Amino acid sequence: MIPNLIDTHSHLHFGAYDEDRDAVLLRMQEQGIQTIVVGTNGATSKAAVAFAERSASVFASVGYHPSHMIHAIEEDYEEADPNPYDPGLLRQLASANSVVAIGETGLDYSYLQDRDDIEMRKVEQRRVFKEHLEIAHELHLPVIIHARDTYDEISSIISQQSQPVRGVMHCYNGTWAEAERLLAIGLMISFTGLVTFKPKKSIPETDQLQRVAERIPLDRFMIETDAPWLAPEPNRGKRNDPTMVKYIAEKIAELRGITLEEVAVASTQNAMRFFRLDEHIHS
């Protein structure tokens, strides 16, 4: 059955849902919502696969968030992993039927500002990002890309790859000019609850995220929650979950002047095609 909406990036396997995960899953099933739970290190990637294997509404992605190339930084609820980055583990986990992507991976230097070894750590992040791209190509899987103020560098690295990259820019928060460059190298763009937030006054109107949602071709975008973070309006500040993806779809429909159904159909078809979800068996 084709779902009504697909939340293409959540962390429903994180500890934020330990007390009511089954209830969230039930609401998702009642609303026809599926999600892809995304690993951020070895431990959370293993947990993503295990969760997806037993949940009919859930698929998995495995990877190492760039912040974990620095040291063991964990967000609230994120399971720590004392083991170093292990590309062999990614290949092993990706053999599971439930795994539909590699990632999240990418470049994020925001945690490096106070470090003496910043340049060495940047080099390490780039190396690991390229290795994720290679693994994704090797295994015929798409890649979920995380970037924080690194869109141009991401574009440059992908443009230099000898093989095409089937990737999605997760949690996009850039300008239309930056989005155009990402689209030109074949990437998809994924919107979170950020698109529902009132833009900062310091951002020129032409550079606001809402302008990207208005202009992006209907066959080049997807929607996601990044739950438990970034709950969209009208739930901003609360714990997010995959059922809130509908508010993101509603906002994009409002911005584009089209129906919610049109946004739902387009984003769901895009996710089904991009992640090849119909090729992954769910019991």
Overview of the structural elements:
The structure is a single chain. With 283 residues, the chain is α/β, with parallel strands linked by helices. The chain has one domain: Metal-dependent hydrolases (TIM Barrel, Alpha-Beta Barrel), CATH 3.20.20.140. It contains 9 helices and 8 strands. It has helices at 21-31, 42-53, 87-93, 118-138, 151-159, 176-184, 209-215, 245-256, 260-275, and strands spanning 5-10, 33-38, 58-62, 99-108, 143-148, 167-169, 188-191, 221-223. An 8-stranded parallel beta sheet has the order 1-2-3-4-5-6-7-8. Helix 1 (21-31) links the parallel strand 1 (5-10) and strand 2. The longest helix is centred in the middle third of the chain and has 21 residues, at 118-138. The mean pLDDT is 93.
